[in-house]
From TrEMBL:
<feature type="domain" description="CBS">
    <location>
        <begin position="71"/>
        <end position="128"/>
    </location>
</feature>
<dbReference type="InterPro" id="IPR000644">
    <property type="entry name" value="CBS_dom"/>
</dbReference>
<dbReference type="InterPro" id="IPR046342">
    <property type="entry name" value="CBS_dom_sf"/>
</dbReference>
<dbReference type="Pfam" id="PF00571">
    <property type="entry name" value="CBS"/>
</dbReference>
<feature type="domain" description="CBS">
    <location>
        <begin position="7"/>
        <end position="63"/>
    </location>
</feature>
<dbReference type="InterPro" id="IPR051257">
    <property type="entry name" value="Diverse_CBS-Domain"/>
</dbReference>
<keyword id="KW-0129">CBS domain</keyword>
<protein>
    <submittedName>
        <fullName>CBS domain-containing protein</fullName>
    </submittedName>
</protein>
Length: 138
């Protein structure tokens, strides 16, 4: 199965100048754990709920600070040419729970462990194996 068959395509994004408060509120509103950060339509980073807590709150970054202060700029991405198995392997190798799917540096979708789990069948336990590998200590 190809990744485009399971990826979420209506991805909400924020800009680097969006505040921590705005991004956190958006996460709550749309019930997600990460928001891709785009500038002029190009993916420049990603922020997770954990980033907001660990890099923001714990470091006493003001809630009105730009999200650019805490985003992860080195984003592991995939393309629509990936199979579900290849995406799961990429997520496991890099110990990530969400994989943005890009074309020409623009986000066109995102795949989460939940997406893998929903589509998991009895012979290919991509989500289960991926979460085990993500959780293993280095």
């Amino acid at each position: 199965m190809r990744i485009e068959d399971i990826m979420t395509t209506d991805v909400e994004t924020c800009r680097p100048e969006s505040t921590l408060q705005e991004v956190a509120s958006m996460m709550r509103e749309i019930n997600v754990g990460s928001i891709p950060i785009c500038e002029d339509g190009r993916l420049v980073g990603i922020v997770t709920d954990r980033d907001i807590v660990i890099r923001g709150l714990a470091e006493q970054i003001p809630s009105d600070a730009a999200i650019a202060e805490i985003l992860s700029a080195e984003v592991i991405t995939g393309t629509v040419s990936l199979t579900v198995e290849e995406a799961a392997e990429l997520m496991a190798i890099h110990k990530i729970r969400r994989l943005p799917i890009v074309a020409n540096e623009r986000i066109i979708g995102i795949v989460s462990l939940g997406d893998l789990a929903i589509r998991d069948d009895s012979s290919n336990h991509y989500a289960e194996n991926t979460i085990i590998e993500i959780s293993e200590l280095d």
